[in-house]
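Researcher: We're teaching a course module on how sequence relates to structure. For the next exercise, students receive a sequence and then see the predicted structure as tokens, so they can try to spot secondary structure elements on their own. Here is the exercise chain.
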Amino acid sequence: MLKNRLKKLREDVCKANLNLVKKGLVTHTFGNVSGIDRESNIVAIKPSGVDYGKLSPENMVLVDLDGSTVEGNLNPSSDTKTHITLYKEFKDIGGVAHTHSRYATAWAQSKRSLPCLGTTHADYFYGEVSCTKVIRDDQIEKDYEKETGSLIIETFKNVDYRCMKAVLVACHGPFTWGKDAEEAVFISVMLEEIAHMNFISVLLDPGLENIKKSLLGKHYLRKHGKDSYYGQKDKD
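Model: And here is the predicted structure for the students to work with:
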């Protein structure tokens, strides 16, 4: 029943937003998480500018894929159109997270993709995490948040979003996604940790090159490939 699904969606999205605070990924009212009910194409998202201490499932805002509010008395996140653009283009995702976490944002502000320097990175991202181009003035004036989403889509024209669940928006910060809001936040946590590691690694050796492809493939595919063997398998 749609009413019950949306109730659970609001609960899950609220919990995911609060996890951004628990994991140290946001300051003040920075950041937002959303989730989508694919049957109805209704998105639940954090309300704009509301302190995390005041969040509840009831004040998560429900919007449709046109960005119109379906239910809720508060304004949805100012980044809602970016989230919606990702849901429209990345058909398999169920959650999106956006933070201004310190190290990932530092790479984004430097307009640098996050290189894949080691196996920790390779366990979660199949290659370097791309940084978008800097958004153009005409895009800012046209529809800034929607065009930010378009910039991400353009960056992924030759990248599989299912194997690369994160992007750095130049001069802005990271966006991540997953099968639901919880996974989107998990990917944000991993991204921030790897961005921190890479920052230190590049300080130690500015000439570091990306991990070799064979080692990248081994670590990513043993966790995420069709013949993956990492972790425990369900037994009958």
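Model: If you want an answer key for the exercise: The chain has a mean pLDDT of 96. The beta strands are 32-37, 42-45, 61-64, 69-71, 95-98, 166-169, 173-178.
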